[in-house]
Amino acid sequence: MEYITKEEVEEYMDLHSNSYNRLEMLMEMCCCDTFIKDVEDFAELLGYYYSSCDNLYYYRGVVRKAFTYASLRKERLMTTEELEFLKNLPDKVTIYRGMTVEESTKEHQGVSWTLDKKVAEFFAYQY
Question: Is 17 a residue whose pLDDT tops 90?
Answer without folding.
Answer: yes
